[in-house]
Fold:
Amino acid sequence: MADIAAVVVSYFSQSTLDACLSRLLASAGVARVVVVDNGSRDNSVAIVNAYAARDPRVQVIANAHNPGFAVACNQGAALCSEPWLALVNPDCLLATSDLEELRELAQAQPDAGIVGADLVDDAGVRDNATRRHELTLARLLAGFGQRDSLAIAADDSKALQAVDAVSGALMLMPRSVFNAVGGFDGGYRLHAEDLDLCRRVRDAGHGVYVANRVRVLHLRGVSSRRRPLWVEWQKHRGIWRYLRRFDRQLRNPLWWALAGVLLWAHLPLAMLHAMLRRKPPHS
Structure:
């Protein structure tokens, strides 16, 4: 049954977008693919328009500027009427059965509000963002200096593993749940909007799960590599927005001030690290 609408947000994504769309359109259960482009100046829109000319399931929204990932996801979801909504990054390359398997697992789990997949890179290494704890100031402090302080270990004995949050790179959810919680919070530009959506879905009484046996290739950060300093700024901004919204510890003014000082003091270090990662190695 074709009852899944896929929303893809592109931003300078030409290197992977063609492969992403060809796989999505070949996927079982996909009734519609909406691509929202956030002001790309590469060939992303041309790639999508070529698909739309050949396949009536493809719809295109070409934003003149970049309003952010969350806003673009909401734009795409607003065009969808199918009962299931898949949010798919343009650097995720799915097998033909992946979305159908996720839907079947979600249907078998009565409280499922969001189901993510086991994301891996091209070396087969699992993405720690796939399974995460709730973001809190206490966890950030406990994991200071660690790249993935929120990561939860995979429990491969479970087909569906309950977690606090999954990665926004690939989410399948009932459209009714997405609409009921109001979709993404458009106040996030990039990063932490997936944590926010998962939190509100759980607060609404639904479960968030990872399908440990549905493995999907995720060529992580293809778009983000263009502007690493801007990405770090948005990442810290998103974390701060999330903590202020959900962490009860920050209701104490002293903890609020301490959290702000620590987070924004960390930003220059994160930017320096991003610049060093981007710098080509010496010959």
